[in-house]
Amino acid sequence: MSKHRVSRRQFLNYTLTGVGGFMAAGMLMPMLRFAVDPVLKAGGKADYIATKLKISDVTEDPQRVDFTVEVVDAWYKSEETRTAWVYKDGDNIVALSPVCKHLGCTVDWNTDKSNPNKFFCPCHYGLYDKDGKNVPGTPPLGPLDRYEHKEKDGILYLGAVKPQKGA
């Protein structure tokens, strides 16, 4: 038998401290996992997404190409439709993002009658040349971004958006 005796007060103190510790751990562990789990998951690769456009159908005039990307936001997965303006410049294919560099509006090709053959942003009358360079004296501060692209089995695949150099 032990010479050290535990009083009732000490026993209740130990018991309540232990139970309180288990309850606190039970509440904090899910919150901690919720905060840390997305950070520990492996990042997605910069995949190329197939479009419905055949390489043989790409013309010298920019044409709008819509494609669907799977977006993962923590645990929520959804599909998002994105757009690119695609055209052929000699033997090269150019794929431009339609997002205006001024305030993020969507640009359209050849929709402004007073400025033909240019990308036009209707929000603040921004203009871009066919190669995506912003026209001086209009609101955009930089050129349109470009999509990385590749060809596979005669189909155009689009990848990540990269900023274009120059103003």
What topology emerges from the helices and strands here?
Layout: H1 8-40, E1 49-54, E2 63-73, E3 76-89, E4 92-96, E5 108-109, E6 119-121, E7 126-128, E8 146-152, E9 155-162
Antiparallel strand pairs: 1-9, 2-3, 3-4, 5-6, 6-7, 8-9
- Number of helical segments? 1
Estimate the mean pLDDT confidence.
Answer: 86
Instruction: Pick out the low-confidence regions.
Output: none
State the share of residues found in helices, binned by percent.
10-25%
Which outline best applies?
Answer: elongated
- Biggest pleated sheet: 3 strands, antiparallel
User: In total, how many beta strands?
Assistant: 9
Q: Could you tell me the strand content as a percent range? A: 35-45%
Distance separating the two termini: 87 Å
Rg over alpha carbons: 28 Å
In spatial order, strands of the major sheet run 1-9-8
Class computed from helices, strands and strand pairing: alpha+beta
How do the SSEs run, as a string of H and E?
Answer: HEEEEEEEEE
Describe the overall structure.
The structure is a single chain. The protein has 167 residues and is α+β, with helices and mostly antiparallel strands. Helices cover 20% and strands 35% of the residues. The chain contains one helix and nine strands. The strands form three sheets. It has a three-stranded antiparallel β-sheet, with no helix packed on it. Strands 2-3-4 form a three-stranded antiparallel β-sheet, with no helix packed on it. The chain has a three-stranded antiparallel β-sheet with strand order 5-6-7, with no helix packed on it. The longest helix is centred in the N-terminal third of the chain and has 33 residues, at 8-40. The mean pLDDT is 86.
